[in-house]
Write a structure and sequence with these properties.
The structure is a homodimer. By secondary structure, chain A is of the alpha+beta class. Chain A is built from nine helices and 14 strands. In chain A, β13 and β14 form a beta hairpin. The mean pLDDT of chain A is about 95.
Chain lengths: ~325, ~325
């Protein structure tokens, strides 16, 4: 791809991002830990293992209903650590600021970073600040990195994903992405649209303590639930089938998606978890999710099946069957 | 400072950066680890401690004699871990790409990241890629984060800094910063100007194994040796005096500094270490530095003295005495 240029879609989290990672980064940087391409890497450290994850946040606008880039950055990194099964213990935050940025805005964002870290109980222990000339960045970017530890007695079960495993989602999907898109387009919509940004580490802790049948957890951000399911199916060498009407979507989110021409399955969540759970444990796991405030509205949305590796299908509301592909193209840039 | 705006100097690593960190970030994010403001945070993890550090890299131009943003990012983070006394074990890399960036350039930089990581023996185990619209970034930014472990038998000695301690530098200063400034200005200079970007973790290991008198190590990047000495003096509650003619500066670097109007003491190094060593151990430490290829040209440049906390002075070549203040103002933006 040497004669080509970077497109917005390379950052969408969907197919072009995968092509960039698998075609360009992986062959060069190849090592066993990176090759896993998990939300967090798991690194051995003497007798211990720790989880390690990083995310650059470039969301536009910087402030939006329900949060801002600071809160999003802290929660996003906590969530990437949490879905690996680890307990987040420390964060770093590196700011790239554009010359001319209002310091009052930076103060609000720094307050959000501090508040989110305090609420989650995960301190920001190190950081960096760089400034670039006016026009060389868009206000502010924040890269957060997190470290987590694996506590005994609460972890992913380690069994392979097999046919019959259930797919759970911890609550309604699409709130974050549609809030950003509506805000960016200056579209005023009826109803309460706000980002669902939240730290899911306590929810994950409760889930893993309640059930030993949780095989995989994912954080459906860029690319949404659809892209995460495609990745899960491909990784497991199996197919996934979901039932569209069981996927929880709040009415204002559905209405906004209709207006904006978006499929909620592809719209980013920032406080949700997708879980693959054994058939036997699915009711226990769903109940555990529902008991936590962030798991209100948890639902079973589908199951793993034999079939072509990586194929995801959805039974539609009118009873048909459609292919759910990975997000492709340039939709939804700068959603996180 | 709420009615103000961010200036380039807020990212210089000098006085304005300190004001931003101490006036805005610290009061909000305050916690005991962050308050240390070390190159790397030291975090407890069960019975273990680990070092954790992050740096956003925004160097312009992206490629320069002796390296590029990828090599700089990997080495910079390894060095921040190393000067805490820890052994770097894992890195993350988060890329922010501008739409329209040539993929061939990204490939060269990714190759540099991979080469630098392999040469240093520290793998990049996790990463992220985001893309922003044309004009919303300047080509490419890379934020690297590193984790290190503290090995028994090689650490900073922990004694307080006292009068008589010696200041060592591991080699000639200013090569990186002056190379970037010359390249950016399109200035063709006589002689061999190239960045000194290099990973100093093996040099630090050798130093700490050879001497138990090493009290403090710093990485003189943004703000150069002068700013690091001001920080050391302030932290120790003492004064520092250096002898200008003992500070090693390669002739082409000195010539370029003269032309560009720069003081080499303020120009960033990316492969050097400043060490505070007990008077007794200074010869051993200097010899240990000199035995390593990256320590060629190591020199003792001054000492700690009683005096106002944070005051750094230099005996000039003509025998006078001048104050060496922290870098202030907007000089040398986007040097790393």
């Amino acid at each position: 791809m040497s004669d080509e240029r970077i497109r917005l879609g390379h950052g969408s989290g969907g197919r072009l991002t995968h092509e960039l990672i698998e075609g360009l980064f992986l062959p060069k940087l190849d090592n066993p830990v990176l090759r896993e391409l998990a939300d967090a890497a798991v690194v051995g450290l003497g007798d211990h293992r720790f989880a390690f994850t990083t995310d650059a946040h470039v969301v536009s606008p910087l402030e939006f209903p329900g949060g801002d880039i600071g809160r999003l950055a802290v929660n996003g990194t906590i969530n990437d650590v949490a879905v690996s099964g680890a307990r987040p213990v420390a964060l770093s935050a590196a700011f790239i600021l554009e010359e001319g940025l209002e310091i009052a805005l930076l103060e609000r964002v720094a307050t959000s970073v501090a508040d989110a870290a305090r609420e989650a109980g995960v301190p920001v222990v190190t950081g960096d600040t760089k400034v670039v000339e006016r026009g060389s960045a868009d206000g502010m970017f924040i890269t957060t990195t997190g470290v987590g530890v694996f506590d005994p007695g609460r972890s992913l079960c380690g069994d392979p994903i097999v046919s019959g495993d259930r797919i759970l989602v911890s609550g309604p999907v699409g709130d974050h992405g549609v809030t950003i898109m509506a805000q960016r387009g200056g579209i005023r919509l009826e109803g309460d649209l706000r980002s669902d940004t939240a730290p899911v580490h306590d929810l994950v802790r409760d889930l893993l303590q309640a059930s030993d049948g949780v095989k995989r957890l994912r954080d459906p951000t860029r690319g949404g639930v659809a892209t995460v399911l495609c990745e899960i199916a491909a990784g497991a060498g199996r197919a996934v089938r979901i039932v569209e009407e069981t996927v929880p979507v709040r009415p204002p989110v559905r209405a906004a998606c209709d207006i904006l021409g978006l499929d909620p399955l592809y719209v980013a969540c920032e406080g949700r978890v997708v879980a693959v759970v054994s058939e036997r444990e699915a009711p226990v796991a769903r109940a555990a999710l529902s008991r936590h405030p962030l798991g209100e509205g948890a639902a079973e949305i589908g199951e793993v099946r034999e079939g072509p590796a990586g194929r995801v299908t959805a039974r539609t509301r009118i009873g048909g069957e459609r292919i759910v592909d990975m997000l492709s193209g340039d939709q939804l840039p700068r959603i996180c």
